[in-house]
Design a protein that fits this description.
- By secondary structure, this protein is α/β, with parallel strands linked by helices.
- The chain has 37 helices and 26 strands.
- The strands form seven sheets. Strands 9, 10, 11, 12, 13, 14, 15, 22 and 23 form a nine-stranded mixed sheet that branches.
- It starts with 5 loop residues before the first strand and ends in a 6-residue tail after the last helix.
């Protein structure tokens, strides 16, 4: 006898909802199927024709059992009610007497056809023919029907629609009401990371798991069966980590040995080794896309980063458990690979620069380099210091050159020391020791520079004066040389004095400025020279009461706030301008105010305004720098508010210090140096010893014009602090002077913009190698292009002159398409300016700041491009014919990007 079909509760419910409508009062329903709920009676309620009917299901296997159940139901259980008795079992219809069948609905056993029921549930008139043979799918659809029913739609229920609805109901993949299912490897792997997803799959009947796996393999790809097998084995959460680990193992040199270990990790979930590669590739693709999302700037960045790292750290843990770590080595995706590459890099820091550069490239190519941005940047900074150490020892013929050299180069080395001193985020001891040794080597070179500077400072100080500065910008001349030019023709500069700001901090703050808002400007250099950021020389000793007073008075002075206010007002009174000076406590504002109302009232006026900010100098005493060496605009009290207020009122800004400082990097327990006539932390009046220099002259305003100052950074004469000033080192005596304008229209006559590319030294940017910045042409029509070194000519795709054809930029502006396009652009710059801009971009590898592009055009023509962003926008209109993006402003307008291939296609040069 053929086996009876099985019917579940839902199948019987649907059957009753249909049959009881035409039952004419009959309360016995015979079902030609066994009940998959077991032998225990089941009671429930079904709604028929607007009212609830009680139902009891009983499984019987003989005619006598059926008769007895019916009699008991009528006589005892519900003699006067309308409840329904459903009898299931394996009794053939021909064994049932007519006296029993007379009480049954339709007077015969009713067949249960899952296909018909599924059609009814989905409101369809027909089924996909393939579904008729797939009992697992029909049964699953009956068992998984949602509380509010399956969505209805379409006359024919297709197999794909049915499976999509089942996946949504059973596993939470998608929405049961959706017409389509946006399902890919990313969705499936993300589902394995949910708390319940894999467990739901593992709980399904085996036949249903097999059917869903086969469908997903066709819909998603060959990775699906392995992923689902892991889920069925209650290891779904490890699917993505195992995939990432498999990718690393298959890429290893010992792939065969690694593959054997992988087989142990996957176990029965891996059908064959042929399934490993597609699974690993799919997992790698998912992780790569997640990494890209984590590198972005969206709201989900932090969450995605944590998710990626959790997956990959788990992959590393699985590798360690299986003893795979030595085999996968410096994998390009796993965190262990990043750490391995980082250790390799730090092992090169004691040697020549080439291996360090190669190791840095390997580290930067790791997929987690951007997610470990701080660690990667620290490593990059270390390699920069190796470049600096590998370069010839800097030399200076004068104090002016030494201070300028510190502002443009060795001050950057000081900043790099601060970065390395914080250590690596991995807390790896080997990495930390390598950085410690590198810091020692850099400090040793810095000590030699300070010693040489101290000797020159001693000689210069004897005769230096405002009338004979020896080429140096004196701190008492900063107002006249930097602020007064900005005040001409009604200009209203805001002078921000950051007390104690050294060159390394100035570099950091300037690098954080939004170049779309602030343009750094400097006086035009002499022919043959390039524009450069300026630095002044402090008074001696480099103390606040001497140097700051001299700065704000515009002449040699000494005293406190009252002296500064009087001297500042007198300086500007001579220039027929009113002036206001705000000290600590006078500009911050009461609760509820970002800035003091008194300060805000002065900003709309024509008066000159200055503010003294003490955050940096105060930090030397309270130890802020002991924990963190880097500074940002947000770290300095009210600096962001002050800059924004200046912008609101169209004021240029002079960002200046009164002196710099040195940090105490000596070991704990290091004692102060005993000295006679101690005047401060870094100077006294006694006889100079090692690490000290005697200074005398009109610029020495303490100790009756003669002092002994420390130039070695580890000397101090007072109690320990985070840092000190008053000595004769480059970091203390150099006064950074930054001049910024909020509009190109405010650039003073005789001044020029300073491109961001020209603020960092060559060794910082790695010029001449990978990622080299383009040399910006010198300012002025008389300037001549610098001669490149032969090795640079061989490596870069610069602005080579082709015989009879000129540079690529010149070829582009001479092409017919360019000449035609130029007719439609009003106020187009000259062809010479455009060609120079294009050649500068090509020499830089296709990217420069708007300021550098404008500077290149200005150098070629002698005509100032006062608005770099506007100039770049005009270039876009000239070059982007038919919408092809030959040149674009990217990174929110901070970078001009040139597509070299599109340039050649759109503006082909004439063939000679």
């Amino acid at each position: 006898m053929a086996a009876r079909p099985a019917a579940g509760r839902r199948a019987i419910e649907v059957l009753l909802e249909t049959e009881l409508l035409h039952a004419d009062g009959a309360r016995l329903v015979l079902v030609d199927a066994t009940y998959d709920g077991g032998d225990q009676d089941t009671a429930f309620t079904v709604r028929v024709d607007g009212r609830n009917r009680s139902v009891r299901i009983t499984e019987q296997h003989s005619p006598l059992g059926i008769a007895d159940a019916w009699q008991r139901h009528r006589a005892q259980e519900d003699p006067d009610g309308d409840s329904v008795l459903v009898v299931t079992g394996g009794v053939p219809a021909d064994q049932l007497g007519w006296d029993l069948r007379a009480h049954a609905v339709r007077r015969r056993p009713l067949a249960v056809d899952p296909a018909d029921i599924v059609k009814q549930l989905f409101g369809a008139t027909d089924l996909d023919a393939r579904m008729l043979k797939e009992t697992w799918l029909l049964d699953a659809l009956l068992a998984a029907e949602p509380v509010d029913g399956w969505p209805r739609g379409g006359a024919v229920l297709t197999r794909d629609r049915a499976v999509r609805a089942l996946l949504a109901a059973r596993l939470g993949l998608g929405d049961t009401t959706a017409d389509t299912l946006d399902l890919d490897a990313d969705t499936l792997f993300a589902w394995t990371r949910t708390p319940a997803g894999p467990a739901l799959f593992a709980a399904l009947p085996a036949a249903e798991r097999t059917g869903l796996s086969e469908w997903l393999a066709r819909a998603v790809g060959p990775a699906a069966p392995t992923l689902l097998a892991l889920a069925a084995d209650n290891r779904g959460a490890d699917a993505l980590p195992l995939g990432a680990l498999a990718s690393a193992a298959l890429s290893a040199q010992s792939a065969e040995a690694a593959g054997f270990a992988l087989g142990t990790l996957f176990g029965s979930a891996l059908a064959s080794f042929d399934a490993l590669r597609p699974f690993a590739d799919a997992a790698t693709g998912v992780v790569t896309r997640w990494v890209a999302q984590a590198e972005g700037s969206g709201q989900q960045r932090t969450e995605t980063r944590a998710r990626v790292l959790a997956v990959l750290e788990r992959a590393d843990q699985l590798a360690a458990d299986a003893r795979l770590s030595p085999l996968i080595g410096a994998d390009r995706m796993l965190p262990s690979g990043y750490r391995s590459r980082l250790r390799t890099l730090t092992a090169t820091l004691d040697g020549p620069v080439a291996p360090a550069e190669a190791a840095l490239r390997e580290l930067a190519e790791h997929q987690l380099s951007a997610l470990n941005a701080e660690s990667t940047e620290t490593a990059r900074t270390a390699v920069r210091l190796v470049r600096w150490l590998s370069a010839p020892m800097p030399t200076a013929d004068s104090v002016a050159q030494a201070v300028q050299g510190h502002m443009s180069s060795s001050g950057w080395a000081d900043m790099a020391i601060g970065v390395l001193s914080e250590g690596d985020t991995s807390r790896d001891t080997a990495v930390g020791e390598a950085y410690h040794r590198l810091i020692g080597a850099v400090r040793a070179r810095r000590t030699r520079l300070d010693e040489d500077f101290a000797r020159k400072l001693a000689l210069w100080t004897e005769t230096a004066s405002p009338q004979a500065p020896g080429g140096a910008l004196l701190i008492e001349d900063v107002l006249a040389e930097a602020a007064a030019p900005l005040a001409r023709e009604g200009g209203r500069p805001l002078i921000l004095v950051l007390d104690g700001m050294s060159a390394d901090i100035a570099v950091q703050l300037a690098g954080e400025l939004d170049r779309r808002v602030w343009t750094e400007v400097v006086p035009k250099p002499r022919p043959g020279k390039e524009p450069a950021r300026r630095a002044a020389v402090s008074m001696l000793p480099s103390l606040t009461t001497i140097s700051r007073a001299s700065l704000l008075c515009g002449q040699s002075a000494q005293g406190g706030q009252s002296v500064e206010r009087a001297g500042f007002a007198a300086f500007w009174r001579k220039r027929h301008r009113g002036a206001h000076l705000f000290h600590k406590g006078g500009y911050e504002g009461p609760p509820g105010h970002r800035l003091a109302p008194e300060l805000l009232e002065t900003l709309p006026s024509d008066d000159i305004v200055a503010v003294v900010v003490n955050t940096i100098d105060d930090a030397l005493a309270d130890g802020r720098e002991g924990a963190r060496g880097r500074w940002s605009i947000g770290d300095i009290a009210k600096l962001s508010d002050l800059m924004n207020a200046a912008l609101d009122h169209g004021r240029p800004v002079v960002l200046v210090s009164d002196h710099g400082h040195v940090l105490d990097r000596t070991p704990r327990g290091h004692q102060q140096t005993e000295a006679e006539g101690v005047g401060g932390a870094r100077w006294h009046t006694g006889t100079p010893g090692q690490g000290e220099v005697a200074l005398a002259g009109s610029r020495v305003l303490a100790g009756s014009g003669r002092i002994t100052a420390a130039w070695r950074e580890d000397l101090r004469y007072t109690g320990r602090q985070a840092g000190y000033h008053g000595g004769a080192s480059l970091a203390e005596v150099t006064v950074p002077v930054l001049t910024l304008v909020p509009s190109a229209d405010l650039i003073p006559p005789g001044w020029t913009l300073l491109p961001a590319e020209r603020t960092a030294p060559d060794w910082w940017q790695g010029r001449g190698g990978a990622g080299a910045a383009a040399p910006v042409p010198t300012d002025g029509p008389a300037a001549k292009p610098r001669r490149k070194k032969p090795e640079q000519d061989q490596q870069s795709e610069g602005i080579f002159m082709l015989p009879g054809r000129g540079t690529p930029g010149e070829q582009a502006v001479q092409s017919a398409p360019y000449k035609a396009q130029r007719e439609f652009v009003r106020h187009a710059p000259s062809e010479k300016a455009v060609a120079a801009a294009l050649d500068a971009l090509l020499a830089a590898g296709g990217k420069l700041s708007p300021g550098a592009v404008a500077a290149a055009a200005q150098a070629a023509t002698g005509k100032s491009q006062r608005n770099p962003e506007r100039f770049a926008t005009v270039l876009e209109r000239l070059l982007n014919i038919d919408g092809y993006p030959v040149l674009q402003l990217v990174e929110s307008g901070r970078t001009v990007q040139l597509d070299k291939a599109l340039l050649a296609q759109q503006f082909p040069g004439d063939t000679p």
